[in-house]
């Protein structure tokens, strides 16, 4: 079984999180969330690889899911991937296998580069008529393509 853990970048440092407050909506800026999804970070035994991973995300509120069409996903600092919105969630096919090999958790180590992916989520709400400072909850899931 794979062992996924999420890390959110704040003040240039990634911290493991189960929940994260990314900020509030303001008309003059976009929301940007930098994340890393690790498979078996600091693992001493190998875990199952995640082959052809898929990132799924959605808002908590049905009404807020209309914002999914404003989302952009960039993987590994360079590759913008298409976001497919279906029903009340968005799906991004990552494609690159995330290996589950045991590792020392160092994100800068060449040996660990395939144990995680960098994900940058951008939500561009500039010039949209939204209630400012409104709390929106999002949920993320990473799973193999099935």
Strand order of the largest sheet: 2-1-3-9-5-6
Report the order of strands and helices: EEEEEEEEEE
State the oligomer: single chain
Query: Which secondary-structure class do the elements indicate?
Result: mainly beta
Helix content: under 10%
Report the span from N to C terminus: 15 Å
Mean pLDDT: 89
Largest sheet: 6 strands, antiparallel
Structural notes for this entry:
With 146 residues, this protein is mainly beta. The chain has a single domain (4-15, 27-144), classed as Immunoglobulin-like (Sandwich). Helix content is 0%, strand content 40%. It has strands spanning 4-10, 13-16, 31-39, 53-59, 71-75, 79-81, 84-86, 89-93, 116-123, 138-144. The protein has a 6-stranded antiparallel β-sheet with strand order 2-1-3-9-5-6, with no helix packed on it. The chain has a 4-stranded antiparallel β-sheet with strand order 7-8-4-10, with no helix packed on it. The radius of gyration is 16 Å and the shape is globular. The mean pLDDT is 89.
């Amino acid at each position: 079984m794979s062992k996924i853990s999420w890390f959110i970048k704040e003040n240039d440092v990634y911290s493991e999180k189960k929940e994260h407050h990314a900020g509030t909506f303001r008309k003059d800026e976009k929301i940007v969330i930098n994340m890393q999804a690790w498979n078996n970070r600091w693992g001493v035994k190998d875990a199952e690889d995640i082959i052809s991973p898929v990132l799924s995300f959605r808002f908590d509120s049905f009404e807020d899911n209309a914002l999914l069409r404003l989302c952009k996903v960039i993987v590994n600092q360079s590759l913008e991937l298409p976001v497919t919105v279906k029903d009340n969630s968005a799906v991004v096919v990552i494609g690159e296998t995330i290996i589950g090999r045991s590792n020392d958790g160092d994100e800068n180590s060449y040996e660990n580069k395939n144990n995680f992916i960098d994900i940058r989520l951008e939500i561009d709400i500039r010039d949209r008529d939204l209630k400012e400072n409104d709390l929106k909850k999002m949920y993320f899931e990473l799973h193999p393509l099935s």
